[in-house]
């Protein structure tokens, strides 16, 4: 992981002091509500339906075991014993008191954590593939680039009062989009030129929310030295020309669309011309320093499929099921990356308790070099587990309820906190997730259905990424009642694509039935080896629509 | 009691802002709108006193690029502190146009934005009338270290030794 230098820690400590002073001035009435608002937001503090919500940054999803233990401590000391993994790989606390927040941030700063720029109209946490560094398909580890972007974007003085929030994601896997770069304000695709040098494609103007769309390719090939200068050029164009008088039109995607990619590119090139070759140009020394922060762990030299693993697979069906579902191949022979499912039926998707955090920290120390990752699908990952230790890890996870073998399956539902917590919600998300999980409680059937992403958002803001769910569910308000609109055919797997609306929305207690009808039709129609999304793309919306809306069915 | 912070200390404000509707006074240091400047540039050059231009959000430095040598000060107006366009304008004046004169933030200018404004190249701050400028001074020293280069020091932290 990135190792804090003196200056990183100093900045963080000074930030805590600054926010403590701001909070005191606010509580003393010296700062008005609207003046305090952006200040607290840029420290991760929202005012929510029942209590404030505090969002803690987890840069590109990476956590160390001491950080996990500190999160557990915060859960116990200042919250109700649990926290939540968000779809942008961050951590959210649901019940802090405003006056405690400076103390919470001070405690977190002691393990190099903070809420900086996790909210507000600024550059947010940079995200990437949760399997970064261990994914055999990546062309290089994206995390050093993410860290460079983190430092450039943190407290960037020019971009703290943008028209709207701004999200950057980095992907290093060719032909797949595990970081969802297609639906970010900026998506950075790492590529190699013919000389084998690293460069970037820069996509601008993707996003979900009210007007979902995928981004446009603005920078076709940005040499690695120019990454930050190019990003700065894009941000300057956005800061100057983004729409500020209508928050629904304020994301960068709207101006990219309105002026066209061509115009946006020429404005960017104009700014970039000023910056290219200047002091922002990255040096080999700096990039190597960052790369050295993400060294290859001290792997043991072992072969794939050791005897211990083979025996366990042969003798234990539940373990075998989990192995095939929740672990995946690794760059290093003899290792697997393990997904901890935070999607057991009855658990609010992405929630984790203080005790579980402590145990996961323990497991990571014992089995995975003390590192943990948060995923955008609201799970956690132990990235580097020896194959001959998988059985022990599984037993420990199973005892905690974190070994539900449903990674990427229908019950691995992504859901925002929704109406149970969020003041912006039109409708609840968590009970809908649970109703669907209960409906599909037969593990054999679940595995037979295969990979199927269901995403639920409680409102248009799309924190549950419903547009890119194979099945997306959106809470809407229909004359004061909670209704749900269903979309099909969204993708956030190999590519990003926005789902198609099925038709009129459904009442709360109809949703699980609708999902069941949709899945039944898929099972009837699928050809050999076809996943839900393949069948949908082959046969289209009409048959699904008929099945769901035709009352005879 | 002055509301002006200039170059890190309280300072007397001997400039008058002339609104778009107001007529130009006979003498004294004045801050005029971009429109007034563009229309009356010639006569303003003979004004008895100094003349500065105020940029509103949406009015870019490019529009006065050729006049910068004549302007001892550019004011950048923040109708609301959360409208961040002025940050880019100041940065552009300092780095693209190499402007050396005073850049003054006026309008909704508050303690908690001063550090970033200063980093973007503002060196004067006309603190909002209902706030104590002495207290606001603290906002200039919230941090002792920065990651990125800025209008003050173009080098990122790893280049400074
Ligand atoms: S999608 Fe809407 S309801 Fe859900 S967390 Fe985001 S803002 Fe709240």
Explain this structure to me?
The complex is a heterodimer of chains A (553) and B (161). Chain A is of the alpha+beta class and 553 residues long. Chain A is built from 17 helices and 23 strands. In chain A, strands 16, 17, 18, 19, 22 and 23 form a 6-stranded mixed β-sheet that branches. A 5-stranded antiparallel β-sheet of chain A has the order 1-2-5-4-13. In chain A, strands 3-14-15-12-11 form a 5-stranded antiparallel β-sheet. Chain B has a single domain (3-160), classed as TIM Barrel (Alpha-Beta Barrel). In chain B, 20% of the residues lie in helices and 21% in strands. The N and C termini of chain B lie far apart (41 Å). Bound molecules: iron/sulfur cluster. Iron/sulfur cluster is lined by residues 416-418, 422, 424-425, 457-459, 461-464 of chain A.
| Overall CATH architecture of chain B | Alpha-Beta Barrel
Apparent shape of chain A: globular
Specify the biggest β-sheet of chain A. Answer: 6 strands, mixed
Q: Share of helix among residues of chain B?
A: 10-25%
**Into how many domains do the coordinates of chain A divide?**
4
SSE series of chain B: EEEEHEEHEHEH
CATH structural fold name of chain B: TIM Barrel
Determine the fraction of residues in helical runs of chain A and give it as a percent range.
Answer: 25-40%
What is the residue-averaged pLDDT of chain B? 96
């Amino acid at each position: 992981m990135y190792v804090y230098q003196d200056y990183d820690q100093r900045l963080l400590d000074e930030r805590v002091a600054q926010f403590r002073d701001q909070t005191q001035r606010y509580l003393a009435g010296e700062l008005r509500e609207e003046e305090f608002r952006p200040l607290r937001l840029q420290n991760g503090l929202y005012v929510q339906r029942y209590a404030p919500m505090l969002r803690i940054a987890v840069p590109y999803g990476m956590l160390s075991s001491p950080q996990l233990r500190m999160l557990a401590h915060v859960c116990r000391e200042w919250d109700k014993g649990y926290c939540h993994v968000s779809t942008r790989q961050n951590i959210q606390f649901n019940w802090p008191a405003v006056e405690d927040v400076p103390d919470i941030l001070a405690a977190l700063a002691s393990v190099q954590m903070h809420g900086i720029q996790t909210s507000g109209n600024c550059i947010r946490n940079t995200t990437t593939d949760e399997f970064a560094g261990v994914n055999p398909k990546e062309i290089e580890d994206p995390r050093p680039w993410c860290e460079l972007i983190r430092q450039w974007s943190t407290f960037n003085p020019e971009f703290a009062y943008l028209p709207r929030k701004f999200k950057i994601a980095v992907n290093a896997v060719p032909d797949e989009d595990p970081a969802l770069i297609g639906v970010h304000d900026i998506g950075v695709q790492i590529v190699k030129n013919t000389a084998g040098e690293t460069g970037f494609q820069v996509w601008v103007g993707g996003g979900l929310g009210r007007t979902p769309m995928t981004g446009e390719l603005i920078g076709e090939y940005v040499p690695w030295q120019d990454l930050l200068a190019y990003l700065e050029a894009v941000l300057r164009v956005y800061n100057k020309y983004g729409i500020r008088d209508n928050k629904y039109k304020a994301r960068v995607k709207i101006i990219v669309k309105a002026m066209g990619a061509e115009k946006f590119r020429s404005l960017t090139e104009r700014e970039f011309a000023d910056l290219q070759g200047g002091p922002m140009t990255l040096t080999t020394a700096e990039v190597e320093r960052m790369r050295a922060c993400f060294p290859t762990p001290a792997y043991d030299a072992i072969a794939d499929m050791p005897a211990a693993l083979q025996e366990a697979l042969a003798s234990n069906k539940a373990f075998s099921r989990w192995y095939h579902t929740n672990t995946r191949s690794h760059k290093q022979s003899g290792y697997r990356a393990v997904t901890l499912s935070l999607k057991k039926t009855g658990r609010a998707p992405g929630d984790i308790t203080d005790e579980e955090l402590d145990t996961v920290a323990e497991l990571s120390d014992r089995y995975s070099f003390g590192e943990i990752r948060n995923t955008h699908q609201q799970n956690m990952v132990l990235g580097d587990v020896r194959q001959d230790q998988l059985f022990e890890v599984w037993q420990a996870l199973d005892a905690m309820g974190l070994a539900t073998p449903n990674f990427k399956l229908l019950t691995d539902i992504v859901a925002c906190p929704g109406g149970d917590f969020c003041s912006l919600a039109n409708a609840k998300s968590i009970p809908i997730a649970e109703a669907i999980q209960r409906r599909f409680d037969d593990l054999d059937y679940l595995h037979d259905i295969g990979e199927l992403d269901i995403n639920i958002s409680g409102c248009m803001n799309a924190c549950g990424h419903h547009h890119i769910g194979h099945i997306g569910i959106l809470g809407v308000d229909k004359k004061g009642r909670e209704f749900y609109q269903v979309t099909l055919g969204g993708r956030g797997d190999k590519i990003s694509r926005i789902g198609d609306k099925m038709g009129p929305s459904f009442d709360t207690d109809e949703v699980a039935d609708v999902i069941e009808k949709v899945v039944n039709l898929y099972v009837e129609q699928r050809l050999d080896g076809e996943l839900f999304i393949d069948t949908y793309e082959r046969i289209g919306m009409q048959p699904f629509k008929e099945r769901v809306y035709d009352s005879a069915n | 009691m002055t509301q002006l912070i200039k170059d890190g200390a309280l300072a007397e404000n001997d400039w008058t802002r002339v609104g778009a509707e107001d007529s130009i006074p006979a003498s004294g240091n004045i801050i005029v709108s971009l429109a007034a400047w563009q229309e009356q540039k010639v006569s303003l050059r003979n004004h008895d006193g100094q003349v500065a231009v105020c940029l509103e959000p949406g009015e870019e430095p490019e529009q006065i690029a050729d006049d910068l040598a004549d302007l001892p000060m550019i004011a950048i107006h923040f109708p609301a502190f959360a409208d961040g366009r002025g940050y880019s304008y100041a940065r552009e004046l300092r780095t693209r146009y190499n402007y050396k004169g005073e850049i003054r933030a006026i309008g909704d200018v508050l303690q908690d934005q001063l550090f970033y404004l200063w980093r973007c190249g503002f060196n004067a701050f006309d603190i909002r009338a209902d706030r104590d400028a002495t207290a606001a001074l603290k906002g200039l020293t919230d941090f002792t270290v920065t990651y990125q280069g800025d209008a003050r020091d173009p080098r990122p932290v790893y280049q400074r030794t």
